């Protein structure tokens, strides 16, 4: 598979169609008015476990709609306790690991992990570290081949926060643990774990090219970045991914 190169230079910094993110409000409204909202079209969950992870500077509200649709369809859903997912990556991963372990023990089954944006990076790290507990990972608009998207709206605040974390402004930070997460971002997903990357060429935040991973089954949809977990197109792609197992 030929992997497209991410945009660099000025096109990478400024070249995302950010104005298209305004449609995310309409996407969510249409989802709530659709049959998806009643769980129709989503594979029957049968109380199988799913862990949802929100994106960078996002929070639970950004994945509540997907949580609702999955729950109505009978999945056992838990949102990872990452807050707005703005702190050091290893802190977020630690919370995700606890939630993953709890869900695995409660259900007695391997867990499907669905992550939006930065949450998808965390999902991959969980698969690398805990293959015995992970059945499948599904990423939504996640930059899988870079730590930060090149787009200035994301890259500049992310790098600024990263520098502040390492100085200890927000409390003690273990740089070795953060570097360990950085290493695990790019480790191949263990054999036997299904890996699906859902992306949109009209994503106004993340360059879709960075969501193409040679290991992953890629599913293209037409949605905003915020709309990937909050639109009929995004939810439909999640349903197709879940149906693979």
Structure description:
Strands 2-1-3-4-5-6 form a six-stranded parallel sheet, with helices on both faces. It has helices at 9-14, 24-32, 64-72, 89-107, 118-129, 152-167, 175-184, 232-242; strands spanning 49-53, 76-79, 111-116, 134-140, 194-200, 217-221. The chain is globular, with a radius of gyration of 17 Å. The protein has 245 residues and is α/β, with parallel strands linked by helices. It has a single domain, classed as Rossmann fold.
Topology, pairings included?
Elements: H1 9-14, H2 24-32, E1 49-53, H3 64-72, E2 76-79, H4 89-107, E3 111-116, H5 118-129, E4 134-140, H6 152-167, H7 175-184, E5 194-200, E6 217-221, H8 232-242
Q: Please tally the helical runs, counting DSSP H or I stretches of 4 or more residues.
A: 8
Average pLDDT taken over every residue: 92
The parts where pLDDT drops under 50 for at least 5 residues are: none
What's the CATH topology label?
A: Rossmann fold
Tell how many strands the DSSP assignment holds. Answer: 6
End-to-end separation: 23 Å
Element-level helix/strand string: HHEHEHEHEHHEEH
* Largest sheet descriptor: 6 strands, parallel
Looking at the structure, what is the overall shape? Answer: globular
- Category from helices, strands and their pairing: alpha/beta
